[in-house]
Amino acid sequence: MDVVVDKMGDSFPEIRVDPKGVKELIQEEEDQFRRTLDRGIRLFKKISEKAKLAGSTVISGKDAFFLYDTYGFPKDLTQLMAEEVYVQFLFLLLSYSCMRSGMSVNVAEYEELVASSAIQKKTKETDSLNVVLDVHNLSHLKDTKVSVTDDSPKYGRDSTNGKILVLFSKGQFVNQIASDDENTPFGIILDRTPFYAEQGGQTYDTGVIEIEEKAKFEVQNVQVYGGYVLHVGFLKFGALKVSEEVLCSYDEIRRAPVRRNHTATHLLNFALREIVGKEVDQKGSLVNPNRFRFDFSCKKPIANEQIDQIERIVQSFIDRDEEVFFRNTQLHVAKQIAGLRAVFGEVYPDPVRVLSVGYSVEDLMADPSSEKWANTSIEFCGGTHVARTSDIRSFVVTNELGTAKGIRRIVAVTGNDARRAVEEADRFAKKIDEIRTLLGKELNLAVIQLVKELDAAGEDSTLPLLRKEVFRKDLADLKKKFDDEDKAFKAAKQEEALKKFKEAVDPNVPYVVEILDIGSNSKIAIAAANVIDKAACMILSADEETQKVLYIARVPKHLIDQGFSAKDWCGQLAQVLGGKSGGSDASSQGSGTNMTSLQEAKQIATEYAKSKVK
User: Fold this and answer.
1) Whether 326 contacts 357, CB under 8 Å
2) pLDDT tens digits for 55-107?
3) H runs (alpha helix) in 57-106
4) Which of 276, 402, 456, 594 has the smallest CB count inside 10 Å?
5) For 353-369, how does the pLDDT look when each residue is reduced to its tens digit (9 = 90+)?
6) What contacts 194, CB < 8 A, 6 or more positions away?
7) Which residue(s) pair with 239 in the sheet?
8) CB half-sphere exposure, 266, CA atoms < 13 A
9) 171: how many CB neighbours lie within 10 A of its CB?
């Protein structure tokens, strides 16, 4: 990895920022892929042998999809192995020898199953939310002496063996579940689990509960009811029985960013009190893998300058690489720690888990009243957290908004999501730079489009908040530039049109018909018509943007007395230009859509005028 950083760091500077984090991520992916590959190859051998015994040379799409959907084994590798085009180094790496199979995969069937699975997945996610334990279920568990779940392994990072205590299906406790209906959600309670159940603002874990090659349960949701941790999901294959031993593995790749985000909420809480004031109280939080939000008491919006200070404080914790300590402590003793933060109104267990950044809990307890504890983040928390603040990598606020009277919310991202937010902001800044050279309507349309992009995401925006504010100012400046130029352009155009119209007037002719380049601006046309006192006037104008023709007529009283009508005059043009007109003998106007007949309309208007004057 050090060689990669040295050779590629200039082209990909982000890997220089956190080489340790990149190494860990690559190692996690590599270890997971090795396990996937090892198990997939063993299963493929069984599947191919089964097909051959049946006299077939085709791996069914169903079997290929099973390898992918259940064990994450890529379709491409299944095809390579079936077609005996083995990738030699993979087998050397895993000490496997090549074997010829001369088979193929039913890809069409596989693709159909993939498409169908995508639709079913959304339905399953909804169905899994309906598996809950009510008061009657909890009463039954207590009456039958089912022990509450030991979830202490959730603070570790290893898979854990557990025993099935309860199986829950369609609102009933059962002794066995089977994969006959893979679309039915089930619930499982174990004696011990490494899965984190949703609580304290932190989202639940996902992962698998399995008996190697016999049964696999996909965990999609984890909730806790009265101390019982209920794992909700779907049985991919096989069957599970009460009292069976299983292997439980949570999704570490999903949990890793949750840990970063959760620790970051603590640092944000500390920074808010430092910058906004000691009266700030936490009112709620939600910690997900891709972002987190933090609600707090505050009477007015947080200024951009304060957001900048808050980001700097949190980032300083990250840069100092502080160790994160935790320990269960008697509640009445823990409450004496100076600078301790707790959620007002929250009921905490006794003993309570104390989480401290930079100072060990043992040090805190040795001198609980020390003023120096106020210089760091100390809270009660049962969530999962990073080992060191540097694991958070980076911190970016993406939104700040009000949710209720006296309640504000900050939304933020960390780690790779923070890096992506900065990269997205750089791309957006480039878009703004690209439109700076535009003029007129092109500039206006481009500004409107970028403003829409900024506003579209709302709370879900992934752009850094402070960068967004800069972008809004830049776009407002560009809009003002367009408005100023447009105003000046229209003023010059009006002046030019009036000048041209005056020049077209012949004092010896009691009428004037003229085409002016004023678009659909009827105000300019009326202004032009009003400069003529004694002559009848007709003004026509084509608007390329709206694809319409505007025409306005004015006739003085002495000509009206001779039978010259502005209303009839415009009526003559409505026939050739399309559309309609209206008004009186003295003043009339209309519009049409036949842009190509403008000159013909001028000729008709001129002939009408000639016929009405003496």
Assistant:
1) no
2) 777 777 777 776 676 666 777 777 777 666 444 434 444 444 444 456 777 77
3) 61-71, 75-82, 88-93
4) 456
5) 999 999 999 999 999 99
6) 151, 153, 154, 156, 158, 159, 160, 205, 248, 249, 250
7) 178
8) 34
9) 13
* Identity of the residue numbered 172: Q
Half-sphere exposure of 192 (CA within 13 A, CB side): 13
Distance CA 374, CA 515 (A): 78
Q: How far is it, in rounded angstroms, from Cα 473 to Cα 110?
A: 51
* Beta strand 378-380 pairing with 395-404: unpaired
pLDDT of 127: 53
In 3D space, the residue among 221, 214, 220, 219 whose CA is nearest the CA of residue 237 turns out to be 214
d(CA 73, CA 50): 18
> Of how many residues is the chain composed?
614
β-pairing, 352-357 vs 378-380, is: antiparallel
Alpha-carbon distance of 218 to 209, in angstroms, equals 7
pLDDT, residue 21, reads: 62
Identify the structural domains of the chain with CATH numbers, from first to last: 2-124 (no CATH), 129-250 (2.40.30.130), 254-322+388-496 (3.30.980.10), 505-612 (3.10.310.40)
Contact 188, 167 (CB under 8 A): yes
Q: What gap in Å lies between CA 569 and CA 597, rounded to an integer?
A: 16
Amino acid at 131: V
Residue whose tokens read 């060191």: 388
Segment (H or E) for 472:
helix 465-504
List, in sequence order, every residue forming a beta bridge with 105; answer none if it has no partner.
Answer: 59
Give bridge partners of residue 187 from the DSSP assignment.
168, 232
119-134 residue pLDDT tens = 555 555 555 567 999 9
Pairing of strands 186-190, 228-237: antiparallel
Count CA within 13 A, CB hemisphere, residue 320.
13
**φ, ψ for residue 159, nearest 5 deg:** -65, 155
* DSSP string over 184-237: S-EEEEESB--PPPSBTTBPPP-EEEEETTTEEEEEEEEEEETTEEEEEEEEEE
- The answer to whether 289 touches 258, Cβ cutoff 8 Å, is yes
Q: Evaluate whether 369 touches 344 at the Cβ level (below 8 Å).
A: no
Closest CA to 224 of 124, 143, 328, 133: 133
Residue type present at position 344 = F
Q: Identify how many contiguous H helices and E strands the chain contains and give both numbers.
A: 19, 23
Q: Are 192 and 160 in contact (CB under 8 A)?
A: yes
* Percent of the chain predicted with pLDDT > 90: 50
Number of neighbouring beta carbons within 10 Å of residue 544: 9
* Residue 309 tokens, joined: 């200070």
Can you give the C-alpha Rg of the chain in angstroms? 37
Angle at 389 between CA 384 and CA 391, to 5 degrees: 80
What are the φ and ψ backbone dihedral angles of 474, each rounded to 5 degrees?
-60, -45
DSSP, res 294: E
| Rounded Cα distance, 504 and 1, in Å | 80
Give the angle 303-309-314 at the CA atoms, nearest 5°: 125
